């Protein structure tokens, strides 16, 4: 009987989950296959309210089994998800927020850390770096030590009033991770099952780029409160970000809002010995610059042309949470191992991170 079941599982791998390139077996929706005499019953765990998707999966399974096997009774049943919070029943975490983007290099890790740091001023916060192939958290918080193992559970590293976990803490020799999909999926699950997070108000997830095994494991195994999408202004970034947004929509994960990073570059200056009566004017790139009565001025440059944040916000009908400007101090802070919002407390970006975190707190 087990041989037949294993053969059926192998055959099911040719069936793709609707609108994805991943098969339904690796997606983890086959929970059980019950075989008795000439009857077969499939128990499926599909985390979606999309009736069409369920109908497609049911039809594809029925047709495949009907063609290749001789069962007289083929039943396909879906587990009801009346309460998605059951997925997180073993976790004492109130809200799990994913910071995501299909595009690499848009600043997800920087956004994630500074948002988490702002939240940690008032709430119990955990931070999980899920970029298994290129973890950046150890550098960004200046930690090289490995987490302790107590009662078969990893104890998060604590710093800046937060609990941290990253594959980078476990892979201290910095050797490249060369893992196949199933291994990545198992490791992702372990960061929830075998990490002693304790009681948290927020767990912030820093996701890698793409819509691969890590993202799909998350939406299938964990009940995410929502996702925040990060983009940059230009269309090249926006094309990939749209793919990530659409993935979350397909699996019924709410998208809280959009962050536009690298939105502009701002220069503050002043005119020495300024006398408003002398008619002094300032022009940069043929654009007139306003000078106030004290001789102070501010110039903003759109280094990356485009309206990526606004466009994606309007397309999805969700808020633009904030715009983070280009600031050398952001990268300096990351390299120094201290979150930007703990150092640059009077900056424009500090107030944007504060605004973004407040919107996340107040989202329904």
Provide keyphrases for this structure.
364 residues; alpha/beta; GMP Synthetase, Chain A, domain 3; 3 domains
What features would you describe in this structure?
This protein has helices at residues 2-12, 51-68, 108-119, 137-141, 167-170, 181-193, 213-221, 235-250, 308-316, 328-336, 348-362, and strands at residues 30-36, 39-44, 73-78, 92-100, 125-129, 149-150, 153-154, 157-159, 162-166, 199-206, 226-231, 255-260, 265-270, 282-284, 287-289, 296-301, 320-323. A hairpin with a 2-residue loop joins strand 6 (149-150) and strand 7 (153-154). With 364 residues, the chain is an alpha/beta fold. 33% of the residues lie in helices and 24% in strands.
**Total DSSP helices:** 11
The biggest sheet amounts to: 8 strands, mixed
Helix/strand order, N-terminal first: HEEHEEHEHEEEEHHEHEHEEEEEHEHH
> Rg from C-alpha positions?
25 Å
For CATH, the homologous superfamily of the largest domain is named as P-loop containing nucleotide triphosphate hydrolases
Helix content: 25-40%
Taken from the alpha-carbon principal axes, the silhouette is elongated
Report the sheet-strand fraction. 15-25%
**Top CATH class of the largest domain:** Alpha Beta
Q: Structural class of the secondary elements? A: alpha/beta
The number of domains is 3
CATH architecture of the largest domain: 3-Layer(aba) Sandwich
Give average pLDDT, whole number: 85
Distance between the termini: 48 Å
CATH level 3 topology of the largest domain: Rossmann fold
* Widest β-sheet, arrangement of strands: 8-9-5-10-4-11-12-17
Poorly predicted segments: none
Number of strands: 17
């Amino acid at each position: 009987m087990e041989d037949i079941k294993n053969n059926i599982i192998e055959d099911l791998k040719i069936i793709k989950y609707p609108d994805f390139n991943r098969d339904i077996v690796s997606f983890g929706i086959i929970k059980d296959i019950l075989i008795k005499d000439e009857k077969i019953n499939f128990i499926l765990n599909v985390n979606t309210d999309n009736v069409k998707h369920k109908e497609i999966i049911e039809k594809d399974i029925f047709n495949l089994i009907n063609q290749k096997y001789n069962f007289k009774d083929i039943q396909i049943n879906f587990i009801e998800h009346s309460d998605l919070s059951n997925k997180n029943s073993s976790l004492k975490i109130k809200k799990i927020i994913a910071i995501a983007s299909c595009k690499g290099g848009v600043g997800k890790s920087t956004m994630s850390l500074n948002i988490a740091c702002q939240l940690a001023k008032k709430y119990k916060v955990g931070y999980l770096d899920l970029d298994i192939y290129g973890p950046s958290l150890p550098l960004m918080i200046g930690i090289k030590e490995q987490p302790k193992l107590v009662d078969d559970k990893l104890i998060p590293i604590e710093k800046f009033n937060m609990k941290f976990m990253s594959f980078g803490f476990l892979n201290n020799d910095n050797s490249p991770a060369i893992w196949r999909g199933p291994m990545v999926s198992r490791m992702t699950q372990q960061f929830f099952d075998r990490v002693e997070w304790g009681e948290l108000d927020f767990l912030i997830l820093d996701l890698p780029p793409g819509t691969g095994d890590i993202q799909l494991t998350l939406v299938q195994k964990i009940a995410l409160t929502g996702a925040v999408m990060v983009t940059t202004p230009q269309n090249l970034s926006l094309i990939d970000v749209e793919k990530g947004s659409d993935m979350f929509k397909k699996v019924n994960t709410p998208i809280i809002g959009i962050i536009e990073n690298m939105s502009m570059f701002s220069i503050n200056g002043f005119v020495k010995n300024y006398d408003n009566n002398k008619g002094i004017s300032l022009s940069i790139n043929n654009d007139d610059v306003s000078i106030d009565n004290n001789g102070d001025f501010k110039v903003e440059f759109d280094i990356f042309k485009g309206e990526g944040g606004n466009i994606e916000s309007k397309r999805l009908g969700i808020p633009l949470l904030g715009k983070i400007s280009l600031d050398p101090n952001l990268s300096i802070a990351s390299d120094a191992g201290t979150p930007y919002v703990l150092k640059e407390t009077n900056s424009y970006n500090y107030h944007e991170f504060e605004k973004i975190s407040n919107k996340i707190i107040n989202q329904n």
